[in-house]
């Protein structure tokens, strides 16, 4: 039979109970966005929050291409073929405009000098949105002379109902919406 342990001056053989750690560490202090030392000149680009390209409740497709001069030649038939598989049978003039706008978008993205170009296509209610993203970090503006020329060239096509461009940390996005 085991002998009972006598209570005495000997400390217990187990460590004392410690309190549990806090459940959530405190948040670090936020940086002061109104720094008086910082000069906000008119030519300085102020970064803003950028939401990624998101598509909800519509069909979509994308292609990643090498940023090379022949990228537009690969994107053109892919976009037209995908629109055909979705059941769009536009007139020849609209089909030509889709091809030309796709070429302009991809060539503008290739001109940014990134490593790759991604082309995104979505449709909704008889409209198609074509977006080209140049994966070239470090661009400072979204509307330079070249960008303005591309936007004017895109809007010259009648089925185009809107177009635009913006710049973020992952490169420049340039897009157009066409009525099919």
Short overview:
By secondary structure, the protein is of the alpha+beta class. The protein is 26% helix and 24% strand.
Task: Based on the model shown, name its key terms.
5 strands; alpha+beta; five-stranded antiparallel β-sheet; elongated; 180 residues
Instruction: Tell me the series of helices and strands, N- to C-terminal.
Output: EHHEEHEE
Cross-sheet strand order for the largest sheet: 1-2-3-5-4
Distance between the ends: 93 Å
The share of residues in helices is: 25-40%
Q: How many beta-strand segments? A: 5
- Which structural class fits the helix and strand makeup? alpha+beta
Low-confidence stretches: 39-46
Shape: elongated
Largest pleated sheet: 5 strands, antiparallel
- What is the average per-residue confidence, as pLDDT, rounded to a whole number? 79
Strand percentage, roughly? 15-25%
Cα-atom radius of gyration:
29 Å
Number of helices: 3
Walk me through this protein's architecture.
- By secondary structure, the chain is of the alpha+beta class.
- It contains three helices and five strands, in the order βααββαββ.
- Strands 1-2-3-5-4 form a five-stranded antiparallel sheet, with helices on one face.
- It starts with 58 loop residues before the first strand and ends with a strand.
């Amino acid at each position: 039979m085991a002998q009972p342990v006598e209570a005495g001056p000997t400390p217990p053989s187990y460590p004392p109970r410690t309190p549990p750690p806090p459940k959530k560490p405190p948040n670090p202090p936020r940086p002061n966005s109104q720094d008086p030392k910082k000069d906000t000149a008119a030519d300085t680009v102020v970064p803003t929050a950028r939401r990624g390209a998101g598509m909800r409740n519509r069909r979509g497709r994308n292609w990643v291409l090498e940023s090379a001069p022949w990228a537009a030649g690969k994107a053109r038939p892919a976009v037209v073929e995908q629109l055909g598989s979705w059941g769009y049978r536009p007139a020849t003039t609209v089909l030509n405009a889709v091809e030309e706008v796709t070429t302009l978008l991809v060539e503008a993205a290739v001109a940014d000098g990134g490593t790759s170009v991604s082309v995104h296509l979505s449709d909704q209610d008889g409209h198609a949105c074509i977006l080209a993203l140049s994966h070239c970090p470090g661009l400072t503006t979204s509307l330079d002379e070249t960008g303005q020329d591309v936007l004017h060239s895109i809007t010259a096509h009648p089925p185009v109902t809107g177009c635009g461009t913006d710049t973020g940390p992952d490169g420049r996005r340039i897009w157009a919406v066409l009525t099919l």
